[in-house]
Write a structure and sequence with these properties.
The structure holds two protein chains of two kinds. Chain A is mainly α. Chain A has five helices and one strand. Classes of the chains: A mainly alpha, B mainly alpha.
């Protein structure tokens, strides 16, 4: 155990980019779990809004970690290759010197930061909104055929104007079979 | 026929597609870029959290407010929530990481004969020898040169602090982050409602 801690601390102290990459992913997992828990127990958020916010939060966490890994790991690898191959070089600094290693480390950390910002601030919100709204859309679709409380003041479900839900045959049948219907 | 021979030539290269046409011009980084990269190499998780939080606060609510897939009310709630999350997540993340790193730095700080912490220009000085001795096996295993070893040793308190902070954040995320995000969300909502009501009122007054 002690040997494992020794090696882990030394390894990540030497490779800062990798360390930041792993801890950011772990931090996101914890934060996402807590935020989802926060929404579930929050009585002030409307039940209908929760149906969007909870899947949004879960998608946010999963997309955050997945996209972060998908974007950042290749970005770090590519930066490494560009520096190694000499496509990116440092003026007056020879290869395989401590100074070169330091600058290469800096480039790797910069790639890690760029990957984190790109994935978490731009790509994740776009994707999680898409998935979150799809989850809410499914929820609305499931509700549609059930129709029991028809009153003259209540607009029938089968009409296209209601929440922009398309006409469905079973909605229409449910409407016509309703015992409260007065024509 | 020509096309087939080209494909054969590309495939014969270990069955990999050849991107030889995409040739990048070599870039040589000057003194300023080198200084910046040198500093970035020593960035800790605090810097990372700050960068992610700042961009998140600016960009994420903008994306949420333009999400045409949901109704306007949900759009607003989602944008306000993103802003609140960015503010609280960044603030608590920085405070917890900062506190854990400080504690770790104090543990490895240079002390005088009386046990008092040695300071240079108001900053505490790390006892590099103490860190080297504590993680002797780990660093021996890496076979680093003196300069790289010194840089790595200086980052040890930051590594230990960040790992400890992850443990602390299991608790603070639930106890501090989640409730504070909800409170901040309410505050932003209230502020926005008042702001729009005032704007509407002033517009109405101008029309009269």
């Amino acid at each position: 155990m002690n040997n494992f801690i020794q090696k882990t601390v030394a390894k990540y102290a030497n490779d800062n980019a990798k360390f930041l990459f792993i801890t950011a992913a772990a931090g996101w997992f914890l934060a996402s779990a807590a935020q989802t828990f926060g929404i579930v127990v929050n009585n002030k958020i409307d039940k209908d809004e929760k149906k969007f916010l909870v899947p949004q939060e879960i998608c946010d966490g999963a997309a955050n970690i997945g996209l972060y890994a998908l974007v950042t790991a290749p970005l770090i690898k590519t930066t490494d290759k560009l520096v190694e191959s000499g496509k990116i070089s440092f003026k007056n600094i020879q290869k395989n010197t401590p100074e070169f290693d330091k600058l290469r480390g800096g480039a790797r950390v910069l790639a890690s930061l760029a990957g984190a910002v790109l994935s978490s601030s731009i790509l994740t919100p776009l994707i999680r909104n898409k998935i979150g709204s799809m989850a809410k859309g499914e929820d609305i679709k499931q509700k549609t055929p059930i129709y029991n409380n028809y009153t003259p003041y209540y607009q029938p479900f089968f009409q296209k104007s209601y929440n922009k839900i398309p006409t469905r045959m079973n909605s229409y049948l449910a409407f016509t079979k309703n015992s409260n219907m007065k024509i | 026929m020509v096309r087939r021979s080209m494909i054969t030539r590309v495939q014969s290269n270990n069955n990999k597609v050849n991107f030889g046409a995409l040739k990048l011009k070599p870039i040589e980084l000057g003194k300023n870029a080198q200084t910046a990269l040198g500093k970035i190499n020593d960035f800790s998780s605090i810097h990372q959290r700050l960068a992610i939080g700042t961009f998140g606060l600016v960009i994420q609510p903008m994306i949420d407010i333009h999400n045409k897939e949901v109704d306007e009310e949900t759009r607003k709630t989602s944008a306000v929530r993103s802003a609140a999350k960015a503010i609280i997540g960044t603030a608590t993340g920085i405070v917890v990481r900062g506190a854990c790193m400080k504690a770790s730095e104090l543990k490895f700080a240079k002390r005088d004969a009386l046990g008092k912490i040695v300071k240079e220009n108001g900053k505490l000085v790390l006892d590099e020898q103490k860190i080297k001795n504590t993680f002797k096996e780990g660093f021996e295993h890496l076979n680093l040169d003196e300069k790289t070893l010194s840089d790595s040793v200086k980052r040890v308190p930051s590594v230990i602090g960040t790992i400890a902070a992850l443990g602390v954040m299991i608790i603070t995320n639930f106890v501090v982050d989640a409730p504070l995000t909800n409170i901040t969300m309410e505050k932003i909502n209230k502020f926005m409602e008042e702001h729009f009501a005032r704007k509407k009122q002033s517009k109405g007054g101008a029309n009269e």
